[in-house]
Amino acid sequence: MCKTDRLQIIKRSFDQLRPSAVVCFGESEWPQFRDAFGTGSTMLAVETAPHKSVSNLHAEFYETGGSIIVLTPFFARPMTNTLTDKVATRLISYGVELP
Q1: 88 in any annotated domain
Q2: pTM value?
Q3: 66 assigned to some structural domain
Q4: Exposure winner among 21, 29, 56, 69, fewest CB in 10 A?
Q5: Looking at the domain assignment, is residue 73 inside a domain?
């Protein structure tokens, strides 16, 4: 119940605010994030990074309604600095301003 409510709140906030980017982390939740942000999203890119224990560590980028949606692994493990840098570089290339 909490997860369903949380995703509805996130989606409602997204629809109201239309941020330039949303970063969703935790690969096990990617299907729910895809549902929350709509099936009409256009896949833009996939970034990959080497990792000693995960063969296909990656992040996915989508565009929906002028916003970029990024799906990443959980930030603690196995997310690496290399993949984090690639995500930031890709967001900047899409015109997203980062602090």
Answers
A1: yes
A2: 0.80
A3: yes
A4: 56
A5: yes
- Residue 34: pLDDT over 50: yes
Q: How many independent structural domains does the chain possess? A: 1
DSSP 37-95: T-TTPEEEEEEE---SS-TT-EEEEEEETTEEEEEE--TTTT--HHHHHHHHHHHHHTT
| Residue 15 three-state SS | helix
* Residue 85 included in any domain: yes
> Which tokens go with 17?
């605010």
* Among candidate residues 39, 47, 90, the one with its CA nearest the CA of residue 65: 39
Q: Which domain holds residue 60?
A: 2-93
Looking at residue 83, its amino acid is L
42, β-bridge pairs: 63
Give the span between the Cα atoms of 72 and 49, in whole angstroms. 12
